[in-house]
Amino acid sequence: MSKLVTPYKTSTLPKKEQVAQMFDAISGNYDNLNRVISFGIDVKWRKKVLQLVAEKNPNTILDIATGTGDLALLMAETNATKIIGLDISAGMLAVGVKKIADKNLSSKIEMMLADSENMPFAENTFDAITVAFGIRNFENLEKGLEEILRVLKPNGIFVVLETSNPTKTPFKQGYVFYTRYILPTIGKLFSKDNAAYGYLSESAAVFPFGEALNNILRKIGFIDVIAMPQTFGVATIYSASKK
Question: With 0-12 CB in 10 A as exposed, 13-18 as middle and 19+ as buried, what is 26?
């Protein structure tokens, strides 16, 4: 990332702790607000992630930065026997646990409070690993990606869904205006944490995307790296594997 963006400018806490604090604060409204902010298109993007993962017929799936478990719940549509949703926010996980229980999937999906940059798993544990709108919240991007590579099985699939910046006119200008002015305003209307959605838009603006992120993934050691822009480039799905 070109610069370190944190949720709370005056806080002396490490970014990781600030992110956990921020998501704890907005966990109650997060799902509904996400649908409003993305106009519901994020559901379509997640289904594309599901399709990529399902094609590999994984037995074990890890969803990192799982939040309230939207993607982990979607992964229950695969034939996987075990799905783990991992996050550093206890507040977000609590919402996810309830959603999973409501769908009677508690025996298949486990929600775990843990650090994605220091995961409690052995090497080569998971057939598939997913992250939706989470890697830009890593305190150390490369360290987090190294951990993911470590716990991914050889020939396993790693799929990332993350915001990106449109590069073509007029989508580029429209996206900048929306994320800089509209998104934080909507966030303030719905959330008691005024800093949260300012951070989310700012972090999206500076995060490497497209070929820049592809190159970081290759540097870490991932192979078969592909970037697939979505909806005029406002988000990108990345797919990679391990030797």
Answer: buried
**Left if phi > 0, otherwise alpha if psi is -120 to 50, otherwise beta: which for 39?**
left
Work out the number of other CB atoms within 10 angstroms of the CB of residue 230.
17
Helix (H, G, I), strand (E, B) or coil at 42: helix
Beta-bridge partners for 82: 60
Read off the pLDDT of residues 110-161 as tens digits, 9 standing for 90 and up.
999 999 999 999 999 999 999 999 999 999 999 999 999 999 999 999 999 9
First-to-last C-alpha distance (Å) of the chain: 26
Output phi, psi for 102, to 5 deg.
-60, -25
Q: Cis before residue 184, ω within 30 degrees of 0?
A: no
d(C-alpha 227, C-alpha 157), whole Å = 14
Backbone angles phi, psi at 224, to 5 degrees: 55, 45
- Residue closest to 75 by CA, chosen among 61, 56, 94, 57: 61
- Give the strand pairing for 223-230 and 235-241: antiparallel
72 DSSP β-pair partners: none
Q: Tell me whether residue 145 is exposed, middle or buried, using C-beta atoms within 10 angstroms of its C-beta: 0 to 12, 13 to 18, 19 or more.
A: buried
Is-contact 233 171, C-beta < 8 A?
yes
Are 227 and 211 a contacting pair, CB within 8 Å? Answer: yes
Q: What is the DSSP string of 184-236?
A: HHHHHHH-S-TTHHHHHHHHHHHS--THHHHHHHHHHT-EEEEEEEEGGGTEE
Report pTM: 0.94
* Pairwise CA distance, residues 238 & 215, whole Å: 12
